[in-house]
Amino acid sequence: MAIKQKTKSLSVTGSRLSSTFVQLNVLNGKDISDAKFPRFSDKLATLGHQPFKPTEIEIFQLNIGKLCNQTCAHCHVDAGPDKKAENMSMADLEKCVELIAATPTIQVVDITGGAPEMHPGFRWFVEECTKLGKRVIDRCNLTIIMANPKYRDLPEFLAKHKVHVVSSLPYFSKKRTDGQRGDGVFEDSIKALQLLNEVGYGQPGSGLVLDLVFNPSGAYLPGKQEELQAEFKRQLDRKFGIVFNELYAITNLPVSRFLDYLIETGNYEEYMQKLVDAYNPSTVESLMCRNTVSVSWDGFLYDCDFNQMLDLKVAAKGQHLTTFDADELRKRNIVMNQHCYGCTAGAGSSCTGVVA
Ligand code: SF4
Ligand code: SF4
User: Fold this and answer.
1) Which ligand 1 atom is nearest residue 139's CA?
2) Do the beta carbons of residue 158 and residue 111 sit within 8 Å?
3) pLDDT tens digits, residue range 154-196?
């Protein structure tokens, strides 16, 4: 907890362009400096990508709030049941709809949280975005469907609006899933997946897409996405009759609760070294920050969800929904730092899995 408080105060008071991890070293008095690792910006420079520029904004990712029915150990947004204040206002949600409508390059509205379905404006927002013809993604933690009878009709609601459901499932066994996400999570996740399958999600020809997210439960990189997907498909079908479309293997980035975990267990430097050693230049062109804008619950704009957690706002004049300017955002330099090694390790990592 002490470390978490220190990391928070740093992210608010520190210079945005200096190294978060070097600052952590100073304040925590621990040898966790990242100075020994090659600078990520130098890696980009050798590819002619310094500064790193975006393409068009195609994905509008919205962290609608930090309220969640779970408190997962690795959560990079620090969400939980006590985060009642940190949720987007209806006025800002309406502003999002207005901006999405006015920005024709946006094709996808990616809603995350917390458990986004707990926000009172969630269903309204989904309906408005669907009316605009946008593809909507709900990053659903699955257990919310079982958490309270008022959410039990979520599968029908999501199916009605052809929402693309993306759900975390750490593993196809109770032990590993509950270990990462809490007691009882595996059982509820399986029931929720079965309910989603019943309304057509993941079923061939239904047009209802159900993708799963795998992320490692410790200080190691995920295995090959294709192999993990094949194994998950085999095991979930055999044990529970569950089907899904794709599995995204996502690397844990050294931010927020996962950074706390790395520091507390003395694994920070070893993990960073793994990320650096696995740097893959062919991932750079497809990094998700190039075509994404990420909006926080309080309306600020970021290059990605991870920068949001580090309070690294977009390097543009308009840093808030109220000053959103798509042309200015297109001209910005993407704010990058040592945590970006997490997106370029191996086959790369993004909110939709590998990138290379
Ligand atoms: S379900 Fe997702 S948002 Fe909620 S605590 Fe777990 S990782 Fe965080
Ligand atoms: S953390 Fe990943 S997505 Fe975010 S700016 Fe760095 S490379 Fe881009």
Assistant:
1) 2
2) no
3) 999 999 999 999 999 989 999 989 988 889 999 999 999 999 9
- Look up residue 319 and give its two tokens: 């840093």
Ligand 2: which atom is nearest the Cα of residue 340? 6
Q: Which ligand neighbours the alpha carbon of 340 most closely?
A: 2
Give CA–CA dist 311/259, Å, rounded.
15
Any idea which of 29-43, 77-91, 114-128 has the lowest mean pLDDT? 29-43
Please tell me the distance between residue 48's alpha carbon and the centre of ligand 2 in angstroms: 17
59 CB under 6 A from ligand 2?
no
Q: Could you tell me if 341 and 20 are in contact, meaning their C-beta atoms sit under 8 angstroms apart?
A: no
CATH 3.20.20, domain 14-344, yes or no: yes
Ligand number nearest CA of 117 is: 1
Tell me which of 49, 112, 306 to substitute to probe ligand 2's pocket, judged by most ligand atoms within 8 Å of the beta carbon: 306
CA 241, 193, 221 angle in degrees (round to 5)?
Answer: 95
The pTM for the full model equals 0.90
Beta bridge partners of 327: none
Q: What are the pLDDT digits (tens) for 75-85?
A: 778 899 999 99
Helix locations, 199-324, DSSP H: 225-240, 256-264, 268-277, 305-309
Q: 78 or 24, which is more confident? A: 78
β pairing state of 301-302 and 292-295:
antiparallel
Is 343 close to ligand 2, i.e. is its CB under 6 Å away?
yes
